[in-house]
Amino acid sequence: TPESSPGGHHAIKRFKFRGTAVCDYVQRVSIKGVVKPNTGRWQLSGSLDHVDICAGLLDSLPRGLVSLPPNLGSYQGRGSVQMAVTRDPAAKAAWQFSVTARIRQGRWQSASLPEPLTDMEATIHADNQGLTIEDFVASYGAATLRVAGQRFGWQSDARIQITADAQRLQLNRQLFAALPMPLRGLWTKFQ
After folding, report:
1. What is the pTM of this model?
2. Which residues are registered as beta bridge partners of 80?
3. Side-chain half-sphere of 98: how many Cα atoms within 13 Å?
4. Quick check: 64 and 49 in contact, CB under 8 A?
5. How far apart are CA 56 and CA 41, in angstroms?
6. Which of 66, 103, 107, 162 qualifies as a cystine partner to 79, CB 3.0-4.6 A?
7. Phi first, then psi: what are they for 27, rounded to 5°?
8. How many CB atoms lie within 10 A of CB 74?
9. β-pair partners for 6
């Protein structure tokens, strides 16, 4: 919806837009925004509701948009995303962004793990200040795993803080074989 300047001038002061869509793996896509051509300012916000996260979704994305390691395994689950992006050339940080993704009913199967991670849930938030993983919970057999983490900034040397808790986790030979070499030394301390 274009809004002209007062007094009948033909210059567009502000342009608002809003839309919704559906697609194969997302039940509802919603976007809205405002563009102010005379200042170069704009804002865009949107959401993806009831996302079916699966191999088909990842395969349908444009090549190069998502780069996943070849031996990552397979993931299935449900999710939702809320996002906002603004640009204000007059601001100290001209670009501002915020993205929050929630996953639930997740299942990750990897050849490197003897059993899949199931019942995965998490909230992941990214913005100009960094990345936060909250409330990550998953089952691994009879075990319950909890992880929280934060990356402070986007520089290559940004500080990262991770906390993890595992309850009822059996440290057996199959799990030992799946551990990266640096963690195998830690595992032997508990024997």
Report:
1. 0.79
2. 102
3. 7
4. no
5. 36
6. 103
7. -70, -35
8. 13
9. none
